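User: Good morning. I'm curious how NAP would be positioned relative to this chain. Could you predict the structure with it bound?
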Amino acid sequence: MDISLVIQFIIDLLAVLLLALGIKGLSKVKSAREANRLAAFAMFLSVIGLLSYYLGTSGITLQSWIWIIIGSFMGSAFGMILAKKVPMTSMPETVALFNGCGGMSSLLVALGVVLFPTNDEGINFFQSLIEIISISVSIFVGAITFSGSIVAMAKLQGWLSTPAWTQSKIRHFLNISFAIISVVAFFNLIQDTNISAISLLVISSTVLGIGVTLPIGGADMPVVISLLNSYSGIAAAAAGFVVGSQLLIVAGAMVGAAGLILTQVMCKGMNRSLISVLFGGTLASKSKNSSSGGEYTNITSCSVEECALTLEAANKVIIVPGYGLAVAQAQHTLREVTKILEQNDIEVCYAIHPVAGRMPGHMNVLLAEADVPYEQLKEMDIVNPDFPATDVVLVLGANDVVNPQAKSDKSSPLYGMPVLDVQEARTVFVIKRGMSAGYSGIKNDLFDLPNTSMVFGDAKKVLSELMTELKELGVGVK
Ligand code: NAP
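Assistant: Good morning! Here's the predicted structure, ligand included:
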């Protein structure tokens, strides 16, 4: 038996187990960091396994080794630098870019195998049929994932806007046309491996990826990103069949399934169906047509000092973090403020809406970065019954996720979206810079309610002023 094959099998098996453990650990905030490291280590192991296999076989030249090492080094360095430098607010763009890289890798692997075939002797009809189907799936899904993810990243980054014509029905006609061309090229490639079918499949799938993603509005883009994440998993699993890698098949299938589940969770959290996200155009155009706009009539604003005085007298405080908190990078200052409150025996917890921020888990990651204890983070369904017994709610740079219109106004684009019932609390302070709308672009009825006071200013600035005020009042000094 070939010893290098045995070593690779054992390393691969270990890597699959570690990867499965890592993915399981990601489901809990507490274990997520370690789990992420474990999954990364599993991937590193699989690269080592593959290289050790090649080391044991004579078919690889020194030049190829140099390319493999340069490629691995450059990829790792690029990933590390990007992950370290990217601000929390740009996570969705980064995830989109990584998905795009995954799709491109699967596409390139499949192209490499089909354009530079190795000796196929001993392969029976079914094996070669499975191989060519896997190659075609890899090219098709990989190209869609790559082009779609790059468009998604460019749109989130603000480099690309939604062209007006893409909101018309023409886009459906064009997309269906490219889908049909892709399917024809797909079956042509399965019947006969020829360069025209390969080129047609690559081009039509790439254009299809652009055509499907371009019309989608910014608000729905993270849903599309998680769907593309799932596609990148499917493409990777297909590439796993192409190169005969069990690890790639398992990892790809897990990513594919996880991406689909996440897409479903996000659609539910935003009260959107996947069909309406993919084919319904932008949410902004709907908001303009809705009757949920209008002027504010009963806004009460107050100073940081008044807010501090109310907090001083509170027994129970709930913090509602939103996208504005991430923009202001105010998580550390917030943690300092809550520490002061806790020192005064005030009960503090954080209400986490599933789609607060710009991607799922955005707020958990942000607060974990500031060492907020995990047990203080409460999911929407758990925390909603607590609001009536809460003295003060601090809404920090959140808007849509606390809009009562979602429950009361049937004409609102937010109607049906599950929201945090902050209006049930005794006093609500909303900290934001002005009266701008949130992501949905509509008015927030919460701001007009008699128990709501606006504290205008950048979240970080207001929180540091609040900290000073609380200290001056003697809160937290025992
Ligand atoms: P939001 O509705 O977008 O509101 C954020 C608010 O933050 C804005 O009203 C803004 O008002 C304020 N803000 C911005 N910069 C600030 C700063 N430096 N200091 C203080 N406030 C600041 O945010 P959200 O309540 O978190 O809701 C998330 C929205 O994103 C939902 O509509 C959700 O459906 C959507 N979305 C989320 C996901 C996801 O997976 N999480 C995915 C797709 C879409 P001012 O400009 O007046 O300050």
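The chain has a mean pLDDT of 88. The first strand starts at residue 316 and ends at 321.
Let me know if you'd like a different ligand tried.
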